[in-house]
Amino acid sequence: MRLKAKHLTLLLGIGLASAAATGAWAQNSPKFEAWLKAAKLGVHQGEDNWDEIIAAAKKEGALTVYSSATTMTAAGEDFAKAYPEIKVQVFPLGSEKTIEKVLSEHQAGIHAVDVVYSGGTQQMVYELLPDRNIVNYVPGYLKDRIDEKHREPLLTQNIEAFAITYNGAANTEPPIKNIWELTEPKWKRRFIMKAPVGSATTATALAAFIERSDELSKAYEAYAGKKLELSKGVENAGYEFLHRILANDVVIQANSGKLAEASGKAGQKNPPITLAPMAYLPRNETDGYVNVAAYDLVPSGIVTYPNFIAIGGQAPHPNAAKLFIAFMMGSKDLNKDSKLTPPFRTGETGKLLQGMAPFFRIGSFSPRKDMPMPPNGERWPAAAKWQASPEFVRDNIAKLNDFWLSRAN
Fold first, then answer.
1. pTM of the predicted model, to two decimals?
2. Alpha carbon of 300 to those of 180, 203, 274, 281, 347: distances in Å?
């Protein structure tokens, strides 16, 4: 069973690599260079003339977005209201399928997508971008408002977070203080998360545990009062933590919304703990959940990852794509002193936030330095947050997935 699962992963990787290689050959053609020049992208970008861009976008009259996030559907609706001359299609495909669809279409010579949005660091930064399946575009007015690491090599639209989350009605304080407690028999089949295999965002988040293994090792000593002993075939504390939660029968859930329900449903006597997107915390108000993020967990209870937004290579509607990306980053009139009041997608607040409005919630943070904190985001700046570096994700994500598959079966 393990062998078959690993073979399946390898075959999928080979297929995608072949598609990427074929796409790279096509994307380096004179036709692609001519498209870049006509679209004023890459080295041809220059200074944005928004009157020209808006007029050209309305003339193009259409926009197609492939997105890893279902939230993008609401942003697409708001964009269509702001620019009714542009017909918008948003396909919320999930992280892996977004990448696969772009690659398979470009391999077939089909250039249908205008904007690609995904949190898959390895695929977006180290596969699609160098093979020119996507092109980075940063609206000029944002260059002084976003740090370079969030502008290059790809624009970060928002920074999302996973958090160790518990039921606040059943627990007046966090039921664990150290993350290693999740490996105890008490939490057997009571810790729930998504698997990294098939979820690029979860894999990117878990990569932080591997990269910060030294801190995990120190946290174990604080927890157990002795040095960590690694299991056979395990190379560091990050992998050892994954090994032990798998041995403790971690429960895998395919749907993030189900994670929020599992830990947050009121009335539970013995609720589980989840590793869940913080963006689901607002469901406490809408669905009556009682989830609480473990901000002070040792060594960290929060892992973050960037969501990137880019223009599809040889996009048929490049000006509409530029306009949409600017819309997704918020108005140039937005600043730290802006008064933002709910409902965030309407009125003056909606005009300021624009495409950021559906994402303006705890657990989803703009890279803009001039952006106010979302509701209940007061603890975010001081919280201990882990994020894997793009280079580490590139070099280790396949290894992490193989480790997970080998130990989970």
1. 0.85
2. 11, 17, 14, 18, 38
